[in-house]
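subagent[fold] <- orchestrator: predict structure for attached chain, return tokens only, no commentary.
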Amino acid sequence: SNVTYQAIISITFVIFQLISRSSFIEDQRATRVYITQAMRLSLIITALLATLFSSNARGLLGLIYPASYRAGAEALRIVPYGMLFFAMIYVLTAIISSSGRPAVSLAVGIATLVSDVAMNCLLIPRFGLAGAATATTSSMMIGAAVGAIYVRTRFGALLPLRSVLRIIVAALTAYGLTLAYAADGLAVVWFSFLQTALYFLMLVVLREIGAEELRALRKILSRSSR
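subagent[fold] -> orchestrator:
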């Protein structure tokens, strides 16, 4: 499930440089554009990965590990979304720190840690491994919310609600395939490709991604290669 947030680490490196530059020259318009694009691309990527890992939890564990590991499938259905929120924290704190406010990023991290410890103490005794996954996911969601509120207040930009809703619809559609067919063994691999294709098809149909997003992605990649 850690792959969910690791996939967007390169975006944080790029966005740090971009926002540091635009903040230094006080180009607020450019800063808002960078924030919105970074958040959108990060959510598009992490929502797909979280959906694939969560919806195929049992099949993936059976593909990689011995059968006894399938006992962790319940937790793996939950925690990928915790890693999605952690990825959002990662991006948000990169934005905050690059604007010269590392202390705020530290505060977001501390708030997340405190809530995680409290929820683990509350949920693990009652629900075991699933409780730990729920505690992690909930605390990461709190941390992401705190970071998002600050970024929105500080810069006047975040992620459009319509984008969030479209990405959720695309993710739910891809997830829904598992209701018709629960892939197991090597079938998990090709089934994941099918879910991925459906996910991006839905994003195109819903007009969430298009030529503009492709240009933004190329711009980010070109800057990261310098």
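orchestrator: received. Logging for downstream: Residues 82 and 137 are 4 Å apart (CA to CA). Residues 102-155 form the longest helix (54 residues).
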